[in-house]
């Protein structure tokens, strides 16, 4: 079996980065919330080592999270990070106190002893940069441990029990601001835990296919294909695993980008030979939206109708036992809440969330453990074309949320589609596509006066948006040079009837959102 590391999550904002670093070291890892871990799970998962994440709680509180005791009794290496260090010390007989000396951000540690996780990077006597974020700190070591590095605010910045292979650090090796952090984690997974580092996306693919076959048996699976990267990868992966037991449903809302519907049909039905139902439902969607201009109502109407149409098509295809979804790792982890209260809805995202219960189907979510860039890599591994897996994200409600403040019509969608296609073509020609997280055109409800030839025009304004981002949560507007913007503007005004003015959106997120609605 592949070597695996288990990461026990105590709710840190950066737990995902631990998983990333471990996987970058060629070792498979999964994150599981501390309160979901049973002894039986530990036996079944059979990790080569365990990492305890940081978290917002304080060990000094009465009911703060703890690692299952079994973690320390399995005879495998354990690495505690920040809160993970503190609970480890407390559980193994040490003490933690709330300190006045908080450390947030860049800090330095003095390395005062050799340690297996420092091998090849940190030498005794060196001062090394790390990233700290803590209020509490360890005040008494658990028996069997010794201090291997100290910082001003954390006398026990790194501690170790080499005999048991238990290590615990107050700083965060998983973030890039701890320059040697990745190597430190690799030392833990390779040197200490003895993992071979041979985990690759090809290996993941084989594992995933095996797991899908086991879960699905000879059942039937239905998968909503949107043309986006995640659902495409799910579809192709499932098809490799179970062939014709899979049916894909592509609900064409009429709000797709230029050429997108054709591309989906050609690629999946003709090239991959996947059973695909292509439902052109654009009239239904336009009718359902009517004159609605309220962004939330539009989203709800589209989301609800999408589910209705999907369900109808799935039934017409003979029903299914399973619904496949492209749920990614960040979606899973966001649902672990330690604060209790509900978060504010900024925008209702469109998904097929209500469907499994309504149709009495179990879920197949083969991408649950992957990050977006890993999904792309898996897509390539499965033979999806590069330009397809590298695509910018596209929202479920599509162009409908890029025509704000005005009733939607097929004509307006056509105008927007043309402008958007020109903009993206120019971005590709300029070699900028991959440097940008997302770029698109927006059709504004404003008409302005222009002059073309000798005639007066009175047409719509188009806004161009492009942002850089790593996760869509925050974003900066993309700094095009003016010549590029001028070229795109000229082409749009000359080639798209109905638009006579183009503006560029320089808003970052926050305070703006990426989409206009
Ligand atoms: P916002 O506009 O909230 O967008 O800054 C963040 C990212 O999410 C995408 N987005 C959606 N994706 N369904 C989706 O699948 C939706 O309803 C939806 N709304 C926004 C948006 O394109 C950006 O990448």
Short description:
The chain has 517 residues and is of the alpha/beta class. The protein contains 15 helices and 18 strands.
Plain-language structure description:
There is one protein chain. This protein is 32% helix and 24% strand. By secondary structure, it is of the alpha/beta class. It has a 9-stranded mixed sheet, with helices on both faces.
In this structure, how is the largest beta sheet organized? 9 strands, mixed
Cross-sheet strand order for the largest sheet: 2-1-3-4-9-8-7-5-6
Helical percent range?
Answer: 25-40%
What compounds sit in this structure? xanthosine-5'-monophosphate
| Whole-number mean pLDDT | 92
How many helices? The count is 15
User: Which regions are unreliable across 5 or more consecutive residues at pLDDT < 50?
Assistant: 335-344
Distance between the first and last residues' Cα? 47 Å
Report Rg.
Answer: 26 Å
Measured by DSSP, the beta-strand proportion falls in 15-25%
Kindly name the structural category. Answer: alpha/beta
Total DSSP E strands: 18
Taken from the alpha-carbon principal axes, the silhouette is globular
């Amino acid at each position: 079996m592949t070597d695996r590391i288990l990461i026990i999550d105590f709710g840190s904002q950066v737990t995902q980065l631990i998983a990333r670093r471990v996987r970058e070291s060629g070792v498979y890892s999964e994150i599981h919330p501390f309160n979901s871990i049973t002894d039986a799970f530990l036996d079944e998962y059979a990790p080569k080592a365990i990492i305890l994440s940081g978290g917002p709680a304080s060990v000094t509180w009465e009911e703060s999270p703890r690692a299952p005791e079994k973690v320390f009794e399995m005879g495998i290496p354990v690495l505690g990070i920040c809160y993970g260090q503190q609970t480890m010390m407390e559980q193994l007989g040490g003490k933690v106190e709330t300190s006045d000396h908080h450390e947030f951000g860049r800090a330095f540690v003095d390395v005062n002893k050799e340690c297996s996780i420092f091998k090849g990077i940190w030498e005794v006597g060196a001062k090394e940069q790390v990233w700290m974020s803590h209020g509490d700190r360890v005040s008494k070591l658990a028996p069997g441990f010794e201090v291997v590095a100290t910082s001003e605010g954390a006398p026990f910045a790194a501690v170790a029990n080499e005999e048991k292979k238990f290590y615990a650090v107050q700083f965060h090796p998983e973030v890039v601001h701890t320059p040697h952090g990745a190597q430190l984690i690799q030392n833990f997974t390779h040197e200490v835990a003895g993992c071979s580092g041979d985990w690759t996306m090809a290996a993941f693919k084989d594992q995933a296919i095996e797991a899908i076959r086991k879960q699905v048996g000879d059942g039937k699976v239905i998968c909503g294909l949107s043309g986006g990267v995640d659902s495409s990868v799910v579809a192709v992966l499932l098809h490799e695993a179970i062939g014709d037991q899979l049916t894909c449903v592509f609900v064409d809302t009429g709000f797709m980008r230029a050429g997108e519907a054709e591309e989906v049909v050609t690629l999946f039905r003709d090239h991959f030979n996947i059973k695909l139902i292509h439902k052109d439902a654009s009239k239904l969607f336009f009718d359902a939206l009517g004159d609605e201009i309220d962004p939330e109502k539009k989203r709800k109407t589209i989301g609800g109708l999408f589910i209705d149409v999907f369900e109808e098509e799935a039934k017409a295809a003979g029903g299914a036992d399973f619904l496949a979804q492209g749920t990614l790792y960040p979606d899973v982890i966001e649902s672990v809440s330690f604060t209790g209260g509900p978060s504010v809805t900024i925008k209702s995202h469109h998904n097929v969330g209500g469907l499994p219960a309504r149709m009495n189907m179990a879920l197949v979510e083969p991408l649950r453990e992957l990050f977006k860039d890993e999904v792309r890599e898996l897509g390539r591994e499965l033979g999806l074309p590069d330009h397809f897996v590298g695509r910018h994200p596209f929202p479920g409600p599509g162009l409908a949320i890029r025509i704000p403040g005005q009733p939607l019509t097929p004509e307006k969608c056509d105008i927007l589609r043309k402008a958007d296609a020109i903009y993206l073509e120019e971005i590709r020609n300029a070699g900028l596509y991959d440097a940008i997280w997302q770029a698109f055109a927006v059709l504004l409800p404003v008409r302005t006066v222009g002059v073309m030839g000798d005639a007066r025009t009175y047409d719509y304004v188009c806004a161009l948006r492009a942002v850089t981002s790593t996760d869509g949560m925050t974003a900066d507007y993309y700094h095009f040079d003016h010549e590029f913007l001028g070229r795109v503007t000229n082409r749009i005004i000359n080639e798209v009837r109905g638009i006579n003015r183009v503006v560029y959106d320089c808003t970052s997120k926050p305070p703006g959102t990426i989409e206009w609605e």
